[in-house]
Amino acid sequence: MRIPSGVSGFDHLIQGGFLPGRLYVLSGPPGSGKTTFTAQFVAEGLRNGEDCLYVTMHESREELVDDMSNFEFGFETLANSEQFRYVNLASNKGERLLNQFSQSGNSGAQSLADKIVAFVNTREIDRLVIDSTMLLELLFADGDEEMTRFLTALKSCSATTLLISEMTDPSAYSDEHYLAHGVVFFHNYLEATGMTRGIQVVKMRGTDIDCDIRSLRFTDEGLVVDPTKRVDF
Length: 233
Hints:
The chain is an alpha/beta fold. Helices cover 30% and strands 27% of the residues. The mean pLDDT is 88.
């Protein structure tokens, strides 16, 4: 069984889609398409009648919907579905929602991960997006150690999870790249003629992958991958 990404052309790079119930990291610089990719992933799940959860710290539900309304993959309509849940960890509402699943004796990263995992498993969430590791690190007093505990707990989640990781140096690997089941890099290169974009599957356990950087474009329909076009930076 494979989970379709909702991004045209991308699933050709990973044998038809993601393996379910696993943790995948999307890494790249700002503006490279990570959030749009996750929105298309969520939209695809909602179209298929799946329950989806989007967890963030830096924007409201309205802001995300407004940003994605510039595309034609229907996110603004699908987001009205009862099967879509949005949690802003920086809001009182989001904090109250996750606190329903708090466990005594845990704190910091372990507590947050346990709350998210309990929410996902109790509500039978199929697709989970977490945006992003940079913002999560602000919550963790002990840096790398707490992030490792968070990621390890997150891997026990029953949902297929996309975790956004801000990254400007594609050679600088972080804990999430080693711990995740799969890693996808987004590349940007500014030329005189404009911005060239690419997407690269670096790691995908249990999958025969295409590791070359392939063409990635923003279109009216959202992100589109050309699996036949190799990009050299």
